[in-house]
Amino acid sequence: MFSVKQLVESGCLTSLPQKYVFKNTESDDCMVTELEAIPTIDFSLLTSGNPDERSKVINELGNACQEWGFFMVINHGVPETLRNEMIRATEGFFDLAGEEKRQYTGKKLFDPIRCGTSFNPKVDKVLLWRDYLKVHVHPHFSAPNKPSGFGKVLQEYCKRTREMASELLKGISESLGLEESYINEKMAVESADSHQLLVANMYPPCPQPELSMGLPPHSDHGLLTILMQNGLAGLQVMHNAKWVPVNPLPNSFLVNTGDHMEILTNGKYKSVVHRAVVNNKATRISIGTAHGPPLDTIVSPAAELVTDFVGQFFPAYRGIKYREYLELQQSKSLNGKSCLDHLRI
Q1: C-alpha 327: how far from chain center
Q2: Which domain holds residue 250?
């Protein structure tokens, strides 16, 4: 299996191959600013049972969703040992010999396990400095058979992130003035058929990082993405027309709202454009879980959020099956919010 990791480890790389060189885009020209920091949400206050603390953090959660679409979660209760085991197991997978990973290459979108490089090499005009592993972990759990023990760690990690997503969605529902169960019930997030996709990314050291890109500016599908990384910076979020580097606190998770949150809330909580830049010093690993409804659910704006005071209905997006949206996104190169633009009314 061809991969960026294999290219780096060949020992013959002195400059960036031309097929990985990105031309400047409009978003690339936006200034990078260190002056702002993404909001921080104390998860323990959301689940503490103290009404005043919960009310305060729900307000903070709503502000974070409306103003940023991105926030950091602390005091989440996921053991640091589990997080570390998940990082190590993921590194172990990428360290497997090419022939051991080959069984997962060239697969179709909804095959249980896929690994590869770039985003969609069949249509990518420029290749991304990124290798990936994608695993559909719910409703049907799957896991690579190597490295040893990966499946057990993966299953527990994904269970904990599903639980976290469910609690966050309760708080987000309340921040919208809805019942806490609204999003979870309407999107069947807690059902046996809800969809969870794990995406692990490896960004090896790049000889000319200023010319390459790990992931170009894009938004995510789904309601929420929950992300952790191995301590190396590289994620940047678009905020007020500037790129804000994300420097998470130790043992925290990063959460962003996805395109289906924007559709469901009729644009009140927008998905956020973000990108992954690369470095020339060390390998960065990130592990994201995307949380969405069952694949055959049609996601459209919630009636409670698009009806004005005289009862007129003003949806800003047309409904689409979750499955069809994923097929649309995965058939193209990543390009900002171009997929969501197809649904705007």
Answers
A1: 16
A2: 4-341
Place of tokens 């007129």: 312
Integer Cα distance of 308 and 17 in angstroms: 55
Residues sharing a CB contact under 8 Å with residue 97, sequence separation 6 or more, in sequence order: none
Number of structural domains in the chain: 1
HSE at residue 152, side-chain half, CA atoms within 13 A, is: 4
**pTM more than 0.85:** yes
CATH number of the domain residue 289 falls in: 2.60.120.330
pLDDT along the chain (345 residues), means of 10: 87 89 65 83 94 96 98 98 98 94 88 93 90 97 96 98 98 97 97 97 96 95 97 94 93 98 97 96 97 97 78 84 94 87 91
pLDDT at 1: 55
pLDDT at 333: 80
Q: Name the residue among 136, 140, 143, 145 with its Cα closest to residue 110.
A: 136
What tokens does 8 get?
């780096």
Q: What is the pLDDT of residue 29?
A: 61
Distance CA 58, CA 212 (A): 39
Q: Are 31 and 243 in contact (CB under 8 A)?
A: yes
* DSSP per position, 42-79: EHHHHSS--HHHHHHHHHHHHHHHHHTSEEEEES----
Based on its alpha-carbon atoms, the radius of gyration of the chain, rounded to whole angstroms, reads: 20
Q: 288: exposed, middle or buried (C-beta count within 10 Å: 0-12, 13-18, 19+)?
A: buried
Distances (CA, A) of 159 to 256, 292, 326: 19, 14, 22
pLDDT at 25: 47
Using CA atoms, how far apart are residues 219 and 53, in angstroms rounded to an integer?
A: 31
Gap between the Cα atoms of 3 and 175, Å rounded: 43
